[in-house]
């Protein structure tokens, strides 16, 4: 489930007696249920973006949408735009700037009449909000160190990767030689 009305007013950050921060989601009256195929589609798209395969990510976004209005020319332009985001992000990690790219993806979708799956948008917006909160609470946190192992595990779970060995082969490429160790704080 994804909170369907996630905005800062529905998030309460608390501190316990030991000084540890906690986050509480409020007003969960609207939720978006993601079935296994929705989850698999989201993981496919995230996996493609993490691997800097913007063309595949764009194509997956188009192919998984229930309603299609875009011409083949629009689809090509949209996929090229997603690939451009990945190329421009070459020295960065997509997982560190999901929020920055979501607006660009939505703008391109509107420009090229690509209908994005609403569950993808809901999940992306939730990630963007959570990313903003997390980086304010823990400025030194490296999102990819936490998120990438989750994406890789989900790919394996859904059979999108053959196994851990294949997943581990991607880690040095994505982490730029850092090995993917989580920073302890």
TrEMBL record:
Please list the residue ranges annotated as the ABC1 atypical kinase-like domain: 1-53
> What Pfam families does the database record attribute to this sequence?
ABC1
Q: Which domain of life is it from?
A: Eukaryota
Q: Which PANTHER family match?
A: AARF DOMAIN CONTAINING KINASE 2, AARF DOMAIN CONTAINING KINASE 2 (PREDICTED)
Could you tell me what this protein is called? Answer: ABC1 atypical kinase-like domain-containing protein
- According to its UniProt entry, this protein's organism is Tetraparma gracilis
The upper taxonomy is: Eukaryota, Sar, Stramenopiles, Ochrophyta, Bolidophyceae
């Amino acid at each position: 489930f994804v909170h369907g009305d996630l905005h800062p007013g529905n998030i309460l950050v608390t501190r316990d007696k030991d000084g540890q921060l906690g986050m509480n989601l409020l007003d969960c009256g609207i939720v978006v249920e993601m079935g296994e195929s929705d989850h698999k589609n989201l993981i496919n798209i995230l996996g493609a973006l993490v691997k800097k395969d913007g063309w595949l990510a764009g194509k997956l976004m188009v192919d998984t949408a229930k309603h299609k209005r875009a011409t083949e020319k629009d689809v090509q332009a949209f996929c090229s735009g997603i690939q451009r985001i990945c190329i421009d992000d070459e020295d960065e990690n997509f997982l560190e700037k999901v929020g920055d790219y979501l607006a660009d993806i939505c703008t391109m979708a509107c420009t090229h009449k690509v209908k994005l799956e609403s569950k993808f948008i809901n999940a992306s917006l939730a990630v963007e909000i959570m990313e903003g909160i997390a980086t304010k609470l823990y400025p030194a946190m490296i999102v990819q160190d936490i998120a990438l192992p989750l994406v890789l595990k989900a790919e394996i779970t859904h059979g999108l990767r053959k196994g851990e060995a294949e997943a581990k082969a991607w880690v040095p490429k994505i982490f730029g030689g850092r090995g993917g160790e989580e920073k302890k704080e």
